[in-house]
Input
Amino acid sequence: MPVRDTIQYLLIKNLNISKKEAKEALEAGNVTVNKISVFNNCYFEKTDEVAFNGKLLFEPLQVYKVLYYKPSGVECTLNTSIPGNLANQFIGWPKMFPVGRLDKASEGLLILTNSGKFYRQMNHHGSEIEKEYIVRVNKKISGDFEEKMSAGIHIMGKKTLPCNVNVLHEDTFRIILKQGLNRQIRRMCYKLDYEVLSLKRIRFGDYHIGNMQPNDCIEI
Output
């Protein structure tokens, strides 16, 4: 997750002043964030402009928000010691963090960003952002599958929230979740005696995969 510093820490580090002097500078209204005065210590984003008496202390980074079609086999990790890591797919880009996750075997829409604010908005617990998937299983889907999956399944000691499920073909269904439990769809299917053969996320909130192909990137 993107790391943030406080305004007070930035003042102390850049102006070589004490904690007390930094606090006094804030209280006097001498510090601005994005040209707006701040009077109390707070966090700032790497994409914010911070100035003291008009002197720039922190120049904002360019904000990147990228839609990425993650292929199966790529791990949602920035740890370059892990084979197939996400970082190696974005060599030459600024450091970005994945919003949400897709397990290694799954494919589809992933959002990456260097904006801490956007990251927290999209990952905020209870935000109820919809995620839509197309799933193929190992056998013909039974008549009561939609009802059971939609109502919620007990996995990992809890019942999943109600969701929207529609069978598309005899072995394929569409599911829309507002949750993001670890390997949730695979675990739900397993409890109903199905094995997931392929899982593709086609939508994350208002963002759709459209005609993207594996490894495609689109800046938004």
